[in-house]
Amino acid sequence: MGKALRILAAVIALMLMLAWLASYSFNSMVDDEISMLTSTAGTGDSLFISESAIQPLPYPVQKWMHRSGVVGKKVPTIVYLTQKGLLRTGADRKWMPAEAEQYFNTATPSFIWKVHARMNFFVGFAGRDKLEDGHGNMLIKLFAAIPVVNASGPATDQGALLRYLGEMCWFPAVAIRPYISWKEIDENSAEATITQNGIQCSGIFRFNRDGDIISFEANRYMQQDGNTSLQKWYIPIKEWKTISGVRLPVRGDVIWKLPGGDFNYFQWEITGISYQ
């Protein structure tokens, strides 16, 4: 029995060491990517949100600028946020607790999102989604070691660019960046179009009477079971707070609105944000 216990202890120690090495390797890779993203931001271009700067924007977007509290402030170049929530990989799958952090470079639209989620006490995965030079890449590794998703290509590029556009709700000042154009739909909604490296994507922001964003929606490529199709991608907002001097959405969902019914796959909450 003593020998069996020693063998078991050795096996467990080896597994823990391999798990630590995999996690260290994954985090080191992502940290290098984050360093690249932040280092290419430079010192920024000293854009400020003035009344004259927002005049060309549609009425509901101007109202959002005032409501969020960014008028009179500098457009941030680097945005860093922390996030927690629940993830699932299918409508019939269990929710998994997740924690994430994300960096944005707004001078040239790019981001890196790093997430850790746990299926149960023993099984977890690490994920990294990014937009760089107009190209997207989604990487998911079981135990931070075994690749289960490594998506890239035109559909992933479009999805990453749309993600950046929708997540602009956390850094409203970027609405005046030249790579984003606007078209008013009505007094409570506007269409935003982002252009990068010849790729162009559009989505619709909807606002309440006070000027808060209540949803974002777009037609995004969904990749599932080896197939790719355009589906409605919908982000409803549930709560807003003022963090680091900016009023922003802090809780909501991410939903695929599919012919067979809605697939809510991410319930998110912002736990912190900072601007540089």
Walk me through the topology.
Blueprint: H1 2-39, H2 51-54, H3 59-68, E1 78-87, E2 96-105, E3 110-118, E4 124-132, E5 135-142, E6 146-151, H4 154-166, E7 180-186, E8 189-196, E9 199-207, E10 213-224, E11 227-243, E12 246-258, E13 261-275
Antiparallel strand pairs: 1-2, 1-13, 2-3, 3-4, 4-5, 5-6, 7-8, 8-9, 9-10, 10-11, 11-12, 12-13
Can you give a write-up of this model?
The chain has 276 residues and is an alpha+beta fold. It has one domain. Helix content is 24%, strand content 48%. It contains four helices and 13 strands. The protein has helices at residues 2-39, 51-54, 59-68, 154-166, and strands spanning 78-87, 96-105, 110-118, 124-132, 135-142, 146-151, 180-186, 189-196, 199-207, 213-224, 227-243, 246-258, 261-275. The protein has a 13-stranded antiparallel beta sheet with strand order 6-5-4-3-2-1-13-12-11-10-9-8-7, with helices on both faces. The longest helix has 38 residues, at 2-39.
Give structural attributes:
single chain; 13 strands
Main sheet specs: 13 strands, antiparallel
Tell me which oligomeric state these chains represent: single chain
The largest beta-sheet arranges its strands as 6-5-4-3-2-1-13-12-11-10-9-8-7
C-alpha end-to-end distance? 59 Å
What sequence of helices (H) and strands (E) makes up the elements?
HHHEEEEEEHEEEEEEE
Residues in helices, as a percent range: 10-25%
Approximately what portion of the residues adopt beta-strand conformation?
over 45%
